[in-house]
Fold these 2 entries.
Entry 1:
Amino acid sequence: MTELSVTIKEKLDSWLNDPSIDETTKQELRSLESNPAELEDRFYRDLEFGTGGLRGVIGAGSNRMNRYTVARATQGFAQYILEEHAGKEGRPSVVIAHDCRHFSPEFALEAALVLAGNGIVAKLFPSLRPTPQLSFSVRSLKATGGIVITASHNPPEYNGYKVYNASGGQLVPHEAERVIGNIQALTSLKEVKRLSREEAEAKGLLLWLGEAEDEAFVETVANTSVNRELMAAGAAKDLVVVFTPLHGTGNMPVRRALEKIGFTQVHVVNEQEQPDGDFSTVKSPNPEEREAFTMAIELGKKIGADILIGTDPDADRMGAVVRTKDGEYEILTGNQSGSLLVHYVLSQMKERGALPSNGAVVKTIVTSEFGAEIARHYGASVFNTLTGFKYIGEKMNEFDQTGQHTYLFGYEESYGYLAGNYARDKDAIVASTLICEAAAYYKRQGKTLIDVLEELYRQFGYYRESLASRTLKGKDGLAKITALMEDFRANPPQDVAGIRVAEMRDYLKGIEGLPKENVLKFLLEDGSWFCLRPSGTEPKIKFYFAVRGTSNEDAKDRLSRLEENVLARVDA
């Protein structure tokens, strides 16, 4: 028996002998005693709390999502909340929401009871709610922090746990490091403080949220409309919309927000309307993938829909599909939707004389320059952040504090958008309302969003982007990803597809005023670029490619050659 096996055995025994761990969990672990490989995977480490919180496969063990790993993380977060609230009046409070995944309600309640055990008021939504509503409610209820139980668009066997600060944003690295330190200092589950539900409720430490918070959120989203009068005057009624929540949390809030603005022809994909933790009608509940829209496209063709929208399980990402003049449906990329929304929001604000002189648009370093060019055309400043909406939220807080800029819009190429200053996380509900509003506005002019996109390409250049990834699991995979990054860092390409590389940006050095992160970006002389970034939530490395061409054909050709050339080196 190796030393590692002894370590695994000790960790397994500690769980089996711990009186605070329930018998069902212990039975699950005993049933695996003839499967040492599975036990090793469940105990070779503690499920890692990163800058985005926890995310992992559901099951018993220290390297799995279960009530005990949730409780441990919450104890560490509770200490952070108490530190943040020190010296302030009243009790600290944390808002908690959850999505439709397996055990999400149970994990949310467990987190609430641990917070209560630490004297923190837990304000819990009794059923599934979108992640952006959690962000909004932390702010509107003036809470000290927030927790949402979700694994975004990961496969059904996953769940996750994300934590938020008092501004409603996910913890940025220096905040997350404090929570991680607290968690690592816990030597035993016995150190977790916890009340029963009855005791927590009796002491006023567990409060239940509901309709008032829902209405406040949806009304705030509706008020983000930039053309509400025109929509109410009939433009919204003329648009035929198909919507799929992909079995997640977006169903009611999206429909209610669209209804408030005046959309009456909203057709929900029936088979995907109800919450389903197995996401049984799709391979992946991810609006970034065409397959997720198969049923929506079928319904769209049947009723002649102008636009199809889909939201992921926790409704922080939105994908859109547009009917073209020939009756076919074209999926918009995250960069295209973001650029269209920048154009629509800023152009309408300008038309009404409401565009501030110090307006700002925020995007990530792997997001297209297309939307940035459009934003500058309207006089807005453009700011880049690292990947992750928490950094966009942090920039919004900075604007609030200094008053030097007015936030107008923020987005990521990965289908995350936010207009308005009411939240600090991406919001598929506001993105859904604005993309439908834009489609209705241009329909009155006899245009589709594809037509508008073509106009913008002719004005600003034919921007095209793509994303590739390589999945490399386990310790060997991690070593390969590390070696690949170091190879490109030590031996940067001098030219790619015949175009000279003008600059290498190594974000591990903390450049451009950004935190250090293991990302490499290569800028070519013709304005194209590519980027290497190991994923923070999955065992993969991502490759981003972007070009600007003189026509659609030229852009497609440039993109194909860039991608082919870089990936040939990667795969070699």
Entry 2:
Amino acid sequence: MAEKQEERAAALSGLRDRLTDGLARSRLTKRDLASGVNLGRTTVQEAFQNDGPVPSAATVAALARTLRLPVGELLALRRIAAGEVRDADGENPGPGRPIGLWHPHDLEVHPAGPALSMEWSSYVPRAHDRVLAEAVRDAAEGKSRMLVLIGSSSTGKTRACWEAVQPLAADGWHLWHPFDPTRAHAALADLRHVRQRTVVWLNEAQHYLGDPRTGERIAAAVHGLLTEPARGPVLVLGTLWPEYAKQYTSLPRPNESDPHSRVRELLAGRTVTIAEAFDRDALATASTLAETDDLLARALERSGGDGRVAQDLAGAPELLRRYENGTPPVRALLAAAMDARRLGVGLHLPQEFLIAAAVDYLDDHDYDQLTEDWAEDAFADLARPVHGKQAPLRRTATRPRRQPPTSGAPDDVFVGGAAPVLRLADFLEQHGRSERERLCPPASFWASASAHLNQAGDLSNLARAARSRQRLRWAHHLFRGAADVGDTNALVELAEMRKRAGDAEGADAFLAQAAAAEHPDALMELAKRREGEGDIEGATALYRRAAGAGSTVALQRLAEARAEAGDVDAAEDLYQAAVGAGHSPALLDLARLRAEAGDVEGAEVLYEQAADAIDPVLLVRLLDVRVTLAQAKGQTSDLDGSDVLYRRAADSGDPVGLVFLAKRRMAVSDDAEAEALQQRIIDTGDADALMELGQLRLAGGDVEGAEALFQLAADAGSTTSMVLLATVRSAFGDNPEAEAQYQRAADAGELVAVSMLARYRVETGDVEGAEGLYKRAIDAGDRHAVLDLARMREDLGDTEGAEALHREVADSGFAESALADRWRFGLDADGTPSSPWN
């Protein structure tokens, strides 16, 4: 009861604070206000009076409209203050508090006005708001929903979410913004406690879903929250930059790990993209609103009609000007901060790290001009806010972790005087990712990181960045630093580095350390060695330890071993354990065991479960690979029971599923249905399905049929099919037609085709033409074209030019494996080959 009274008092206080702020900005007197809203002076006076009664809804609405305040937000506060809001189930509302008690700034909705005024411009609805509104309506009507807004920095994602939930505020919903002690820890700890009628606020969702240790578990917890009817309705809202969305939703290549499988499944069908710029309708609406909104009017004027109004309101242009026109020390500090963030250092950058890191970003002349207090002056300049919104590099503070006391007093009471940390503005962070993408930080950056960073994640991320850029000595040093502060992953990375360097003894020592700490990858590696040496008992013991440490792959391997030994019951138990640990593909192995034991019905049930757990088309791709491997080994496989998966994929609406079903019918010699399915595929006109079918025919030796399908797919717009068609024509000596198809694909923007054309130019002696094509591909973003150009120069005897290009590739860090053998000891920070080092 006392908690409810405090909540009502806080809501009434917040309501009066909002009204008072609005009155101050309006420059009206209370007498003027009373006259303007046609209310009695006493009524208006009591609405602002600290010991006055809760004003009526009509009074609040009239005052809010006149003072240009958000009516819905103020009415929500008024309802809480009056005790008119009902809880989810009475006593325990779970994490969060009523939406009306949240201030938008506390939810990271950036103001557009002066820093202390906390002003926001009028809101301009756009296309994505309709999708948000639909999700909110569903939630209000009792259906749990999730929506993640995808958009670049400062495009209005968070503001859109805030505006969307206001109808729920008026109905008493709560909002929970997990962030203490860290976003990921808070989410993982309390998602299971979220109650009905709660908005889960996952702004900058990469801090939750992208966390390497907990992201997959958070995704699973959110999925459980959304799919358990008894816990609904809830609404999960999040935001992501496009690069994070692409990273989480992209399918891994064959034989690559899949670190975001659950996140990918969670996001499927639950994202909406925000346009970079206002469209014509939004600009027209903004122009109308700007007649009474100076903030919006100035933003429209500054944006010059290009539609990037949200970015202007967020201060992005001024941030960019502050960076580009800053003094050399300012630019050096910002460049160091940009490099730190793009290479994996956390949000909070230690000031002492930035000062030491910035030194080598200055040329000799600017370095000579440094004064004793250069850093102090630069940080003061960078702390000045732009357009009242945010500073390029602002001082911030990390929240202390709050744990129960262990011996009479809290373990981590906040103590002042901690080393200062700073945060780079979001827009500059994103700008740095693109502007500095191909640049490698100088020596002072790596040295400062080694000396001043002490978080294991920061050190390991930078070590990987250094290794991919061939700065092997710094990579080794930074991994050692990460290992010293408890990162056992770093020990595995060090073992791999020593193995590549030919130091088997050193690799074994690091692996042993990691295995002693029960690191699953180290245990797996040692188990494979034992298995290769014939020590099956020792390997099994290590696999069991790896499984106990959380390795589903180890469970899979143990299950396979038991199945090969004929212990079907033990194999089934292990496969079931793998499924329970989240490894859904193990359902396929269970189904195979049931089928081989003659339990076709049981196999089909398991296949149905697999189809429900994994995307149907992805599932049949996986099954197809397994069937092919089994047949190559002469093993039996469940060719009948698995039909349920192939048909499920075909019925999923994806034409590619028809291709797999056709392939399946061909495998069991059902030629009539296979032919009918192929005709259905052709009738769909789907470019991807036509291409897949063409590859199927090509694999079966039907070159003419494959070419016809590639041609149909190319005519439907598939540039990949154009390249495949060109490759087939080239293989059969039809070089002119092959070149024509490569040209067609290149003209359609297929970068691979540009590089293939360049190779044709080389073969015909047109070196200048080839170089032009490679540069075109490079400028368009095909970084592999740099390697092709380097090889061409090397073949032509231009070793110096080739070396320069290879170093450019190394600096960008994208082709680590391609350059692994080029410089045995790596490169120094300045790009020159390193001397031998231990």
